[in-house]
Amino acid sequence: MPSHKADIDHIDQIFRALGDPTRRAIVEKLSEGPISVSQLAQPLNITLAAVVQHLQVLEESGLVQTEKVGRVRTCRIDPAGLSLAEQWMADRRSVWERRFDRLGDLLVESDESE
Asked: Does domain 5-113 bear CATH number 1.10.10.10?
């Protein structure tokens, strides 16, 4: 579980980035593999400038990496950003699973004592 303030701020930044439906669509498309910015813009039906702005937010959050070779900027998922969000959610899930397990144990004990 992230305890360091920088990690918590980073998680906040990741979830803010994923809070936008267009950025989630970009992440979904990039999960299929690397793609150029212009190829990414076509199915999204938004301008190239808008895609670049969304990519900047995703890149700053650590979810996406871009690389420019010549005139083509290629984008790809950055697994580290996804891993941080995944670990945060797994920690929350673990806490709740333990709570439900304890509740289940209490209910079984209650049934046995009746």
From this structure: yes
